[in-house]
């Protein structure tokens, strides 16, 4: 699949991984829908960066937990561009809570996280299904997490929601083929403000260095490296669907050899 003149909806793209994906796709000539729920300034800044690449953008406020918002965003994209080729379900949320603190989570926490991380991705995919099928080469990328595979991460509720997203990716890949491919990417520790804000700077720095030392590649993901993998799935993965791609420098393999 070629990105030039394609149209991508990227949810949660006013900052972080979503913003990096939007900028990279724009570099390759892809028109982008920049979605935000609260950070309008960030979304407008990302759109300006993308437009410098000569592509068109649409900035759209929507909460993916609301089905009406999902349908409205797809309708707006079709009204402006006449097509949707790519959907990146990147919008996500969490509650930071130590896994041992079972009393730190309640039913509403799970419902809130699932509403965005899992149900939101389903609702966006359903809203875009017809448009994605129409081009016979549509692609959905779900932003999951190593938390959903290993039961780790910011909280048990977060890990559970991302695990459900991985399973849903496989289900959707079966039913949306052959016109649409559906894959998930699972970053490990991602450098950036999102984790730094949630963990606090001191804990963030310590965990970053620990993770780097443990990973065979002695590095962790950044928003840009995650975007690179998404790009590769789009332009180089024509026979890849229902897959889960880990992006963690090999940390899931176990401790790296000691440097000498």
TrEMBL record:
CDD domains linked: SDR_c
Keyword Nucleotide-binding (UniProt): no
InterPro entries associated with the record: KR_dom, NAD(P)-bd_dom_sf, Sc_DH/Rdtase_CS, SDR_fam
Domain of life: Bacteria
GO molecular function terms attached to this record: oxidoreductase activity
Family: Belongs to the short-chain dehydrogenases/reductases (SDR) family.
Protein name: 3-oxoacyl-[acyl-carrier protein] reductase
Species whose genome carries this gene: Marinobacter daqiaonensis
